[in-house]
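Reopening closed ticket. The problem is back. First fold of the pair:
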Amino acid sequence: MHFSDAQLQQWLADFFWPFVRIGAALAAAPIFSVRQVPMRYRVLMAVLITLVIQPLIPPVPVVDVFGAEGVMIALQQIGIGAMMGFVLQLAFNALIFGGQVMAYSMGLGFASMMDPINGVQVPMVSQYWLILAMLAFLLGNGHLLLLGSVAESFHLLPVAVDGLTRAGLWGVVSWSSRLFAAGVLMALPVIIALLLINIGMGVVSRAAPQLNIFAIGFPITLLAGFLVMWVTLPQVMHGFGQLVDEALGLGADLLRAR
């Protein structure tokens, strides 16, 4: 059995370009990119996913992988995959930001632990929300939706030298403001409740100066914060789900509007 150079180049291109895009998406997406997952497992996962979806994607151009044009195509595939994973990462970072705002309002800004996704110290409230969000994401088959979006991206934006435009990159930057808006919106009930409690304690301290408000103020704000967190948890998870759907839809819209 003999194989020509053209056949070998075609087989290599059919596998390599999708593998690069899928690998970049997994490296930037939440849960898949946690530091506890070894790099070899991520590469093996990208290889298996590529082998599964490779027969379903449009034909890719036969280009020398190690040539100048091949390098440009590889950079485009890395950019497309990283964009899809990064947009979804912003939805998780909105919870982290909201948890930080809430923790500072409750007086828990000093209580922090290591975030397994980003590898930095975050408040305990942010970590609590992040763990629930990861479980809800997996329970709602968010990882399958992400892989489906990556597979669909090969039809919306086939492998070629041209890929993401400046307008598409600017769309990602503009949407990143949703991180702060969504985070503040999730923490707003706790902020308002604690603000009213602080106002009430200020009035009490003026009316009865002999009371030690500083001794009872911290336990009250802490208990009230946890109570409001428990009451508003369904709304927070519902808002997070809408933010994930919006992030996945944004990735598809940016690929359509190239």
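Second fold of the pair, where the issue appears:
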Amino acid sequence: METAQDIRTINEWVKEKSGIVDLLLMELEKVIVGQRHMIESLLTGLLTDGHILLEGVPGLAKTLAVKSLAAAVDGKFSRIQFTPDLLPSDIIGTVIYNQKTQEFSNRKGPIFANFVLADEINRAPAKVQSALLEAMQERQVTIGDETYPLPQPFLVLATMNPIEQEGTYHLPEAQVDRFMLKVVMTYPDKHEEQKIIRLNMASALPEVRKVLTLGDILEARKTVEAIYMDEKIEKYIVDIVFATRNPADYNLSKLNGLISYGASPRAGISMAKAAKAQAFLCHRGYVVPEDVRHVALDVLRHRIGLTYEAEAENMTTDHLIREILHNVEVP
């Protein structure tokens, strides 16, 4: 049990170590206009070893953001465009036969990178999705008889286009649950749009410099793990998760017929990790309830199933989560 002195020590340590956040944000905002929430979500995934599912229309700088982050931390970047004819070997690699040496050798695929952009993940068939799922969950890939660990850090950013559903495959709930966050991106405002046009009319985009190493990121993860989370905050997270399963226990009987299934235990784990990362982004060595509330939408929106009644009433998971946050007692 940490004492007040221990928490002060952790807080000072985090203040010192979290300076890397400002460095990264400064570099990324050279080329990414607006989309602060997306950038912070990327950093949350990076700091907690979690993957991110992004939903947004084309042209919102998803690829540019991941590519820029990879450049800023000197990591290897891969982009995989998912299509219905994609094969698992196109992602993880394959065994090839060399006629000269008369030997088989393994050729690694684009999954062997620190930052992998899986563009329009719902366009690929189930076999390809399951191959990516193994890599995301196990942090390793098997090619032939050999198993290879994936590089660290390893972050998958998968995108989904919400407006075009032809030629797409439904993502199974078990796979979606593996994503730590689901971030819904919105259009920029008028001022940001004008800035984007001006930036792209210039002769060349600003260059993102390398400001950190992969070792710095792995070190920052240890700092995030050490951030103090009080038992009351843990109970608050548990209450939020349980309210998605048994809403009547939290004076939310009106949600009973709207939720077909609640959040899994991974939701609580992800919320705790994301809340610690949010505290780190705020240069704080302890978690407060507002950190939990800040990440709750992104952690839960893909982990709650809606009934037909909810869809008939035009209810979304975001509406339900806000209702739950409004009713669950804050410590």
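Update: turned out to be a display glitch only; the data is intact. Residues 265-281 form the longest helix (17 residues). Residues 263 and 303 are 5 Å apart (CA to CA). Please close again.
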